[in-house]
Specification:
The complex is a heterodimer of chains A (about 250) and B (about 240). By secondary structure, chain A is of the alpha/beta class. Helix content of chain A is about 50%, strand content about 10%. Chain B has about 240 residues and is of the alpha/beta class. Chain B is globular and about 50 Å long. The chains are: A alpha/beta (about 250), B alpha/beta (about 240). At the A-B interface, helix 6 and helix 9 of A face helix 5, helix 7 and strand 7 of B.
Chain lengths: ~250, ~240
């Protein structure tokens, strides 16, 4: 077994870009051994793993076989998972009545069901180790809802409820589950949103800023810091809580 | 000549710094290289200890002005001053008890915010973190005066956060669960095994855990605006 086994180990899903990428960098900087997952096995994931001395475990978390293979690969390299950061997400905007049901359900399959199976796979390791942390990346839209985002909002609201239920169920075993519900983050997704809306990147940034009381989009590093807090020593009394670093968008409603 | 903000250590004002959560907060900020000023009725171990009653607005203003003059500004204020009276039925709370609780917890927070905000406005930076309680989120069958005062702090800070949202000044709340401090008497019901067994974490919150939450908000919390972080051992989910 690798010498890394004495370090705490984090598994971050959806880590090839954006928030997941920044979170992997932050946790590595904080001293974690880090395994990174994303659906695509392109150079970005491998490059990230190289950069942080971690392990790339590509795979679709909506595929139960892939989840088993992924957690087995992490266990072989690091021995176990101490911190799971459930960040991977599928998103597709569309009207509730006309959106293709396949696209609607794919979001629930990845965001909620995929992480459900991944949690099932890692919790026995956390129990054996005497504890662990689960950080679910939910969304401000899971708190407030959003037009033409019913599947995404429902899946993310499901993660909020999952954090609360897991928090109650697993805390007696030293496994602390919490969620973060960010609002508008300055990531690559803004380019997609801009294209969907038929406007420029600067225009979508301005449109979102106007929805935020502080007028500031979150940087990925802001949200990665929230993950690091919940995963680190300072988060040891948080159980089933929903952090909302969104500049005041959600007003603590979760 | 005015020193830039990078030219000095960051400065934290902590009320209730002589014991419990306030003392743990002052200790943690001190360990992390901040200069700390404690405001309390009793002496504190902060770098600068000022004995002052938080219900006296003018005294708090003078103390805060002195801290700013001494340390060159105020970057964070943490309002932890408070006390607790356990086991009082609503019908048994006297007007004096009600008024005093509101004056210390709500009035103390008001007075501290009013004293530090002018300094933060002038510096165009700053963060205020108020200590409330999980009882303000979940309610309580007894001690209504304490619960109401802590709940009022939520409304105060959320409203101030909205008022200052367009500025770099941030205001947020930490609402701890039952915490192992001198406010809980040795025979407190909150220390009984039967109560602790109802908490998912099965134990009281430690003052250092509350301090760590405050420190996180003060140092990496610029995206929180009027939020409530609750390290509560699962007491309120």
């Amino acid at each position: 077994m690798a010498a890394a086994a004495c370090r705490a180990v984090a598994l971050v899903t959806g880590a090839a870009q954006g928030l997941g990428y920044a979170t992997a960098l932050r946790l590595a900087a904080d001293g974690f051994g880090v395994a990174v997952n994303d659906i695509s096995n392109d150079g970005r994931l491998a490059g990230l793993a190289d950069r942080i001395g971690g392990l790339a475990v590509p795979g679709d978390i909506a595929d139960p076989d892939a989840v088993i293979a992924m957690t087995r690969a992490v266990a072989e390299q690091f021995g176990r998972v101490d911190v799971l950061v459930a960040n991977a997400a599928a998103m597709g905007m569309g009207s509730f009545l006309t959106q293709d049901p396949k696209i609607w359900w794919r979001q629930v399959e990845v965001n909620l069901s995929g992480h459900f199976r991944l949690i099932q796979a890692v919790v026995p390791q956390m129990r054996a180790a005497g504890g662990g942390r689960i950080v679910l990346i939910a969304s401000g839209w899971g708190v407030t809802g959003h037009p033409n985002a019913t599947a995404y909002a429902a899946s993310k609201a499901g993660l909020i409820a999952l954090a609360k239920g897991l928090g109650r169920e697993l805390a007696p075993q030293g496994i602390l589950a919490n969620a973060i519900a960010p609002s508008y983050i300055d990531t690559e997704q803004l380019r997609v949103d801009a294209d969907d809306a038929g406007i420029t990147l600067d225009e979508i940034r301005q449109r979102y800023r106007e929805l935020i009381p502080t007028g500031q989009l979150a940087a990925v590093e802001d949200i990665a810091a929230a993950v690091a807090f919940l995963a680190g020593p300072g988060g040891s009394a948080f159980v089933g809580q929903i952090l909302q670093p969104g500049g005041g968008v959600t007003r603590t409603r979760a | 000549m005015t020193a830039g903000p990078e030219a000095r250590s960051p400065v934290a004002v902590i009320t209730g710094a002589a014991s419990g959560i306030g003392a743990a907060t002052a200790a943690l900020f001190g360990q992390r290289g901040w200069r700390t000023a404690g405001i309390d009725l009793r002496p504190s171990d902060a770098d600068l200890s000022l004995q002052c009653d938080v219900t006296e607005a003018a005294a708090v203003r003078s103390a805060v002005d002195a801290i700013s003059a001494r340390f060159g500004g105020i970057d964070a204020a943490v309002t932890a001053a408070g006390y607790y009276e356990e086991g009082l039925d609503i019908c048994d709370i006297t007007k004096a008890q009600w008024d005093s609780m509101l004056q210390v917890i709500l009035g103390g927070t008001v007075n501290t915010c009013a004293a530090v905000l002018p300094h933060m406005i002038a510096a165009e930076r700053g963060t205020i973190i108020a200590i409330s309680s999980e009882l303000a989120l979940g309610g309580s069958a007894t001690d209504l005066h304490y619960v109401c005062a802590k709940g009022a702090v939520l409304g105060l800070i959320k409203s101030l956060a909205a008022e200052f949202a367009a500025t770099p000044i941030r205001l947020n709340v930490v609402a701890p669960g039952p915490t192992d401090t001198p406010l809980l008497a040795p025979d407190s019901l909150w220390r009984e095994p039967g109560y602790l067994a109802t908490l998912p974490l099965g134990r009281l919150v430690r003052p250092a855990e509350v301090a760590a939450t405050v420190y996180y908000l003060a140092t990496e919390g610029s995206m929180y605006c009027g939020e409530v972080l609750s390290p509560n051992a699962g007491a309120v989910i």
